[in-house]
Design goal:
With 339 residues, the chain is an alpha/beta fold. The chain folds into two domains: 1-102 and 188-339, 3-Layer(aba) Sandwich (Rossmann fold), CATH 3.40.50.300; 117-184, no CATH class. 30% of the residues lie in helices and 21% in strands. The chain contains ten helices and twelve strands. The protein has helices at 7-15, 63-70, 93-100, 120-130, 141-154, 171-183, 201-218, 229-235, 253-258, 263-271, and strands at 20-30, 36-47, 52-56, 78-83, 86-87, 103-106, 189-193, 221-225, 238-243, 246-252, 320-323, 326-328. The strands form two sheets. It has an eight-stranded mixed β-sheet, sandwiched between helices. A four-stranded antiparallel β-sheet has the order 2-1-4-5. α6 (171-183) runs parallel beside α7. The protein starts with 6 loop residues before the first helix and ends in an 11-residue tail after the last strand. The model is unreliable at 1-8 (pLDDT under 50). The structure holds iron/sulfur cluster (SF4). The site of iron/sulfur cluster (SF4) has 13 residues, from loops.
Length: 339
């Protein structure tokens, strides 16, 4: 079931300062022979407190790199990142540390993100020991134990979890532990990078429900990265569609996924394994996603676009408003692809 949207949310996002704001963000990796891999190629977006921004796109489109850049887990090439009103783009790590407590990440690989040699209790307590209590004093062992029990209760795991090792848990249970660890320091923003894609479908539903429940109870804000559109629709307030390092369509979830205007979003929704809308025949994209080292000139989607026209090969389309809270980067967004 998709979230309920109302005009209040739209008006709110226009009047309240965003929790996270990114302007012209670039992240490239230099390669041999003077070449460059452009993973994130000039992205600007805002994330508002209390919303879930879903980030979708094919593998290699740059969505995971963008997620890491948002939290400054990887250095950016250029651009500006503002979190809670603080420009964190070039903030020193020592100054950034208190803010880091309020922005956390949940990774796809639940096993690799937990040290197999340490008990869960030690793993969950580590952030509390590194980041001192709000007053700057060290938390007592009793307070830490209380907090750990509270966290396990939040994610639906028994207290005995604290004494066990990561390999003793299933993938779903380990992801619950990862979520608990992300919540240890009471963050405001959580970036979840494909948090359910390695799980069985039945377990996926439980973890998505847990994310939704925690968001409601704790007032969290998520950037939710996934390639499964059904999963994204279930939890997101807004959706941003990425292609070759840039956003090609962004808007309220149902507007983007039920009435997509960019040909790439249309192809994604029509080809989804669990259909978002019923279609007579899914639209198959031509060819593979081009290399981010030599991206096509003009519209970067023109080599695969079924309605590309000569202008598309020359002029890069910019994100433009097509409705309230709905932007599309296409010269011909009104032309539906035919099938
Ligand atoms: S700008 Fe042209 S090539 Fe790009 S998506 Fe739109 S129609 Fe297709």
């Amino acid at each position: 079931m998709s979230p309920v949207y109302n005009l209040g949310f739209v008006l709110m996002t226009e009047t309240i300062k965003p929790l996270l704001s990114v302007t012209q963000l670039y992240k490239s990796y230099p390669l041999a022979k003077g070449q460059c891999l452009h993973a994130v190629d000039g992205i600007s977006l805002q994330v508002h407190a209390g919303e879930v921004l879903g980030l979708v796109g094919e593998s290699g489109c740059g969505k995971s790199t963008l997620g890491r850049c948002l939290l400054r887990l990887t250095p950016i090439s250029s651009g500006k990142i503002v979190f809670e009103g603080h420009d964190i783009t070039h903030m020193k790590e020592s100054v950034l540390r208190p803010l880091r407590a309020r922005m956390q990440m949940v990774f796809q690989d639940s096993y690799a993100s937990l040290n197999p040699r340490r008990r869960i209790g030690d793993l969950l307590a580590a952030p509390l020991q590194v980041h001192k209590a709000p007053q700057g004093t060290k938390r007592s062992p009793t307070l830490i134990q209380e907090r750990l029990h509270e966290l396990l209760d939040l994610v639906g795991l028994p207290p005995s979890t604290l004494h066990r090792y990561p390999h003793e848990f299933s993938g779903g249970q380990r992801q619950r532990i990862n979520i608990a660890r992300a919540l240890t320091l009471s963050p405001r923003l959580v970036v979840a990078d494909e948090p359910v894609s390695a799980l069985d479908v039945s377990v996926q539903a439980q973890i998505i429900n847990l994310f939704a429940d925690l968001q409601e109870r704790l007032g969290l804000t998520y950037v939710f990265i996934a390639h499964d559109l059904a999963v994204v629709r279930q939890i997101s307030t807004r959706v941003a569609v990425m292609y070759l390092g840039t956003i090609v369509e962004i808007g309220l979830t149902d507007a983007v996924l039920l009435s997509p205007l960019h040909p790439y979003t249309q192809a994604l929704t029509e080809a989804a394994p669990r259909p978002i809308v019923s279609v007579r025949r899914p639209l198959a994209l031509r060819g593979d996603i081009p290399s981010p080292i030599n991206r096509p000139p003009g519209c970067r989607f023109h080599t695969r676009c079924p309605i590309a026209q000569p202008r598309c090969q020359i002029e890069e389309p910019l994100l433009k408003n097509v409705a309230v809270e709905h932007q599309v980067a296409c010269h011909f967004p009104e032309n539906k692809t035919s099938y």
